[in-house]
Amino acid sequence: MNENTTVPAETASEAPASLGAADIMSIMSCLPHRYPFLLVDRIERIDGDVSCVGIKNVTANEPHFQGHFPGNPVMPGVLIIEGMAQTAGVVCILAKGGIPKDQPAPLVYFMTIDDAKFRRPVVPGDVLEYHMVKETKRRNMWWYRGEARVAGELVAQARVGAMITGF
Q: How far is it, in rounded angstroms, from Cα 70 to Cα 49?
């Protein structure tokens, strides 16, 4: 998804007046992940299960920075991809109506990671944005194309597929 993409004039009237958002409490109600493995802080511009932008505030206090790499902290690429998948998983669950309060969060399992590329390191102080766009859905499985950006600059990209169970 490109930040510079515009809605064509003939479809602008079909675009929703406002898109949804999810705060950390909504995210935690949808995913079983918790610190230190919850890798999305909020989700903005949610358009059903079609697209969204997840936000991760990267801080020096995160445990992976102690060993990756001492003196030169770099967020592991696999965690960036995991953050993309968590973002997509939340919007899929929200698009299906969310989780009833008395129910546990469903489990979201990775099925595929394709075409992953890393463009530059993500470091403490960065605000990481996960731009996710649905490619396809079949039963309880979804595939998304994602781009991770910092200050508008592409830092990583991948296609991810996941299955949601217990839902």
A: 38
